[in-house]
Design a protein that fits this description.
The structure holds three protein chains of three kinds. By secondary structure, chain B is mainly α. Chain B is built from 14 helices and no strands. Chain C folds into two domains: 177 residues, D-Maltodextrin-Binding Protein, domain 2; 215 residues, Periplasmic binding protein-like II (D-Maltodextrin-Binding Protein, domain 2, 3-Layer(aba) Sandwich), CATH 3.40.190. Chain C contains 18 helices and ten strands. Chain C has a five-stranded mixed sheet, with helices on both faces. In chain C, helix 8 packs across helix 9 and helix 17 runs antiparallel to helix 18. The chains are: A mainly alpha, B mainly alpha, C alpha+beta. Chains in contact: A-B, A-C, B-C.
Chain lengths: 290, 277, 439
């Protein structure tokens, strides 16, 4: 049905986006790759001799590297698990008839609008501070030792903060999916004597499958590069307990000013992200088949 | 075939959902309360904070005295709206072409676009910083607008694409039969049908751009600094500062929160990414 | 295509607005320490007098360092004036990244000679002055006279050992009444926890590098020092100490939560200021403790104003620098904020001012403490570097930050002291090898 003319005009219409994105990807990326082969420290300007694979060697042997990989994985899967399961529960709950649904929904989605720096600072100071924070006060009132969140359970604290921000997003998408479910189908199943777990497992969950993959895809994109929350709360510590890959690259390129190693890290992260992207795309691509 | 729902179960649902909703909302509510307290009251035990009778707006005054809120606010508005509109301008033709003139590689192109979003920004900061320095774009709104447009472009294209896909092709064909040009087709037929989808795309991207905290902190310092920079100056305490931090936080998130609430119907309606058929 | 044209026009308009900056608008990057906040408060007077305007960029210390270093090293030119310290100034100055301020000596009104020689030396490289100080500091011990009295403890008059200090802290530790025995920095960062730990390690006889630049972090001395630190903080420190930097501890101390605190002398005017502190009249000071040696037991630092070489507005910036560190400026702080709030450790004339001596009798103690610091001999054993709480080489920031993180991990129990120091040693060896100091 598409004519030759419309094909070429389509190509014309798509080209600005493609060219811009290509440029956006290629120009900095090729500079990053170039830098990753130089001995280039911001604090030692002047000569930037060719360094071969040296920077990659230093990056891979960085004692923080394996920890950062594990932390990234823990952070992403932790938040994904909490938000997906929590989102399904919230969606199921909000889908039920109740009073004041509008108000409740407004309250549930609010955290999604909060900027990461603000939520990091607010949780750190007003809630998780062991002396003056609310949790510390409550523990004190109950006669318990207050929890030093960022000292004792740093990663769990970060996961909690990030999940708080992303749970509304998962809830919204899953709720919309759930609401589009054909009620008659559900009622028919109920009449046939299907129990609620069965209805959930065989009707609702498959119906939400697409939405769940979308939630996972979008969140993964954002969670892989979590940065601000870590910067304002733990600075990657204590030790390297909350250093994810993004933060490690930040440390080497901007706190140690070693652009060469930071770039090598950037290249590694880009390759890893693309591997993740590849698998996610296959999964979502199948599910989305456009 | 409506079912009768007992008021009792409705009450139960309301109570459960209400409690959970309140818990989700509580941190925001709490900083709203603290922002109207004196610094001395703000660090008291939670119940004492609630029942201390002094309410004051002095923290807002102190925050404003320190950095000009309106300037940062205008920067945030300009940058988030600007990057979204600019992105829309580029994304609409691309999404249109992919949705209505699909080629063999369309899906690959779309997936590739989305994968560019996965590049960790830190990995390319120094190159971008150097390019910006050479083009004099550091600390300019144009520079930041462009960067935020680029990082959100894949999302915009994808969202628009999924909406366009849902528009039945027959309508377009009918328009074409009637002799509509491509331009007329886009403006008079397609756009009105895609308005809800575009509305939610715009809203989501304004939110994302408003809250973006890596590039905006690295590439701006003062002239183009948006509200993320405004709040960053409170990341280290100075004496008692809970009330001031709360006030600054409320000032930074209030505009987008209010916009989000008022437009939540539009936002939610379109926020499906093609996940709902 | 009307829409597109309109939008392009719109974006062009945005760019026009964004690039047409007013000629005399300068951007200053600063931390939010109390003395800088006072400067922000008073700066409108300079703006009125000169017609120029100032954009303040206020950032947390670690972030400020990262932003300013990135900008100055790439020649970004985002800032016209930066607050930097005794560590960066000589290194950056030697690289030609800062505008020399030697012509300040020609200004009789400014009277450069009035600024302590020691401080000027710390802010110079190769005989050129690259920054002017707002204040300088060493470290000493803040203590609460009321708490000491209640516990029946005498404040020491001579320099005591850290062991004696720990005994003293144990006696005044009273968490039931909300007073912790001691507050020390725990927040990771070379300018945060390492500022306290550096002198502590010096006292225990430790050093960063030996004469061949071999890192010494796995030595017995470091182990003793860090074990002492972790025990002290876990037994007598406030909860959540690993998140506390200078400003956090200052807030805790001013709020009456700490009995002792070894930190910057420059915090004294704020802590003793009844307007800003609840413990103003019950705070006094004694020397920072020693252990096996008293070399390098008090740090040296100064926060100073410098102009990046990439600034296009150096003349206006210089004018502000002169204003902000002039005799008149300190006088103005004295008149508006009270003489107790005047920044210390820079100008001889300020330290001799009777108004200051009356409001802040401790000013003399501070001056003497600063004069007793010898950055060239910071340790028990000879070392190839200068600097008390830092090592004046560019690589130190990265190493110091990493070691700081490891010690924070040891403090929270995420790692043992041995693990933390072994990791630190490995990292330091890596960095020094990378930089070519050692093979």
């Amino acid at each position: 049905m598409a004519t030759k003319a419309s094909r070429s005009s389509a190509r014309l219409m798509i080209s600005p986006a493609v060219i811009l994105l290509l440029g956006w990807m290629i120009i900095p990326l090729s500079m990053t790759i170039y830098f990753s082969f130089l001995r280039y420290n911001l604090l030692q300007p002047g000569s930037t001799p060719f360094a071969g694979w040296e920077n990659y060697y230093w990056f891979f042997t960085d004692p923080s590297f394996s920890a950062a990989m594990v932390n990234t994985l823990v952070l992403v899967t932790g938040v994904l698990t909490i938000t997906t399961i929590g989102g399904i529960c919230f969606a199921l709950l909000l889908d039920r008839p109740m009073f004041g649904q509008g108000i409740i929904r407004i309250m549930v989605i609010a955290p999604f609008f909060v900027m990461p720096t603000v939520s990091g600072l607010v949780w750190k100071n007003m809630f998780m501070n062991p002396v003056n924070g609310i949790f510390g006060r409550i523990a004190g009132a109950l006669g318990m030792q207050p929890v030093d969140f960022f000292g004792q359970i740093p990663m769990a604290s970060i996961i909690l903060i990030v999940s708080w921000m992303w749970l509304p997003f998962a809830t919204l998408i899953l709720l919309t999916a759930l609401q589009s479910l054909d009620q008659e189908q559900l009622e028919a199943a109920e009449m046939d004597g299907a129990s609620w777990p069965n209805r959930f497992w065989f009707i609702m969950l498959p119906h939400m499958a697409r939405a769940i993959t979308v939630v996972i895809l979008i969140q993964t994109i954002f969670l892989l590069s979590i940065f601000a929350e870590i910067l304002v709360t733990t600075n990657g510590g204590p030790g390297v307990a909350t250093t994810n890959l993004t933060y490690l690259i930040y440390v080497s390129s901007l706190l140690q000013y070693d652009v060469g190693i930071g770039s090598a890290g950037g290249v590694v992260a880009i390759i890893l992200a693309n591997i993740v992207a590849f698998f996610l795309m296959r999964m979502i691509g199948k599910n989305l088949d456009a | 075939m409506a079912r009768a729902i007992s008021t009792k179960s409705k009450m139960f649902n309301t109570a459960t959902a209400g409690t959970l909703g309140f818990l989700m909302f509580f941190p925001i509510l709490w900083i709203l309360i603290l922002s109207f307290k004196t610094e001395e009251d703000a660090i008291r035990a939670p119940l004492e904070v609630l029942f201390s009778s002094d309410w004051t707006t002095e923290s807002y005054g102190a925050v404003q005295a320190r950095s000009d809120y309106f300037k940062h606010f205008m920067n945030s508005v300009t940058i988030s709206v600007g990057s979204t509109l600019l992105g829309l301008l580029i994304a609409i033709p691309a999404a249109w072409a992919m949705a209505f003139v699909p080629a063999k590689r369309t899906k690959d192109v779309l997936m590739w676009m989305l994968s560019t979003k996965m590049l960790p920004p830190v990995g390319v900061l120094i190159p971008i910083y150097l390019i910006f320095r050479d083009f004099g774009l550091l600390d300019t709104r144009v520079g930041l607008t462009f960067v935020l447009m680029m990082i959100n472009l894949p999302i915009i294209i994808w969202m628009l694409y999924t909406y366009f896909k849902e528009i039945p092709g027959e309508i377009l064909e009918a328009a074409r039969m009637d002799g509509a040009t491509l331009r007329e087709e886009v403006i008079y037929v397609l756009t009105p049908m895609a308005i809800p989808g575009m509305a939610s795309t715009v809203l989501l991207n304004i939110i994302l751009a408003w809250n973006e905290a890596f590039w905006s902190l690295q590439l701006t310092s003062s002239n183009a600094a948006p509200l993320t920079q405004f709040i960053a100056s409170y990341s280290s305490p100075e004496g008692l500062f809970y009330a001031k931090l709360s006030a600054a936080s409320i000032m930074a998130i209030a505009p987008i929160l209010i916009m989000g609430w008022f437009s939540q119907k539009q936002l939610v309606r379109g926020l499906t990414f093609g996940a709902v058929k | 295509m009307k829409l597109r044209t309109a939008m392009l026009a719109g974006s062009a308009l945005v760019s026009a607005v964004a690039t047409s900056a007013i000629a005399e608008e300068i951007t200053i990057a600063t931390v939010n320490n109390a003395d800088m906040i006072v400067m922000q408060k008073l700066a409108p007077k300079w703006e009125e007098a000169t017609g120029n305007t100032i954009n303040w960029v206020v950032l947390e210390e670690n972030v400020l360092r990262q932003r300013t270093t990135t900008d100055i090293a790439t020649g970004g030119g985002s800032f016209d004036i930066m607050f930097i310290g005794a560590y960066e100034t000589p290194i950056w100055g030697a690289k030609g990244w800062l505008t020399p301020l030697d012509d300040f000596a020609d200004d009789a009104d400014y009277d450069l000679e009035d600024i302590f020689q020691l401080v000027r030396n710390g802010l110079s490289a190769d005989g050129h002055l690259y920054a002017v100080p707002l204040y300088s500091e060493t470290s000493f011990t803040f203590y609460r006279t009321d708490v000491f009295e209640k516990a029946g403890v005498e404040a020491p008059t001579e320099q005591i050992t850290y062991d004696a200090f720990a005994e003293l802290v144990a006696k005044v530790h009273d968490p039931e009444n909300g007073v912790y025995g001691t507050c020390q920095r725990g927040k990771a960062g070379w300018g945060e926890n390492m500022a306290f730990i550096g002198p502590l390690a010096n006292a225990f006889g430790a050093k960063w590098f030996d004469m061949d630049w071999q890192p010494q972090l796995d030595s017995e001395e470091w182990n003793n020092a860090i074990t002492y630190y972790v025990d002290l903080m876990n037994n007598y420190g406030p909860p959540g100490a690993s998140a506390n930097g200078h400003n956090e501890n200052r807030a805790l101390f001013k709020d009456g939560k700490c009995a002792t605190w070894v930190d910057a002398t420059s915090a004294a005017n704020d802590v003793r200021n009844p307007k800003t502190s609840t413990v103003a009249d019950v705070t006094d000071f004694f020397q920072a403790p020693k252990q096996v040696t008293s070399n390098g037991t008090g740090w040296f630092w100064s926060w100073a104003l410098a102009i990046p070489a990439s600034s296009q507005k150096a003349d206006v910036a210089k004018d502000f620098l002169k204003w902000g560190t002039s005799k008149e400026y300190y006088e103005m702080v004295g008149e508006t904020e009270g003489w107790v709030a005047v920044p210390s450790g820079t100008r001889a004339s300020v330290h001799e001012d009777p108004r200051l001596l009356e409001a802040a009798p401790f000013a003399e103690t501070i001056k003497n403490a600063i004069f007793s610091v010898d950055p060239a001999n910071p340790t028990r054993d000879p070392v190839p570097y200068t600097g008390v709480q830092f090592v004046a080489i560019p690589e130190f920031q990265g190493i110091g930050n990493y070691v700081g993180q490891q010690i924070a991990a040891a403090l929270t129990g995420q790692a043992t002291v041995e693990e933390a120091l072994a990791n630190s040693q490995k990292f330091a060896v890596r960095e020094m090898t990378k930089a070519g100091y050692i093979k």
